[in-house]
Design goal:
The protein has about 50 residues and is mainly β. It has a 5-stranded antiparallel β-sheet with strand order 1-2-3-4-5, with no helix packed on it. Strand 1 and strand 2 form a beta hairpin.
C-alpha cells in the first residue's frame, strides 16, 4: 500500500488522536484493546484494523 496523503493530528487523551488531512477532511484514530486495535475515521468513512 502507498500513502495517498498526509494528516496532522493532535493527541486528545485516552489513546485518541484527531486532526485534518491535507485536503481539510477531519480524521481521527483511536488505539484500543491494549493498543492492538486501531479505529480510523476519515470524513464519513470508518475503518478498523488489528495488529498481530
Amino acid at each position: 500500500m502507498q500513502p495517498v496523503g498526509l494528516a496532522v493530528t493532535t493527541y486528545q487523551g485516552r489513546n485518541t488522536f484527531s486532526g485534518k488531512s491535507q485536503a481539510g477532511t477531519p480524521v481521527s484514530f483511536t488505539l484500543e484493546n491494549n493498543l492492538r486495535t486501531i479505529k480510523v475515521k476519515h470524513g464519513g468513512d470508518s475503518f478498523t484494523g488489528v495488529c498481530h
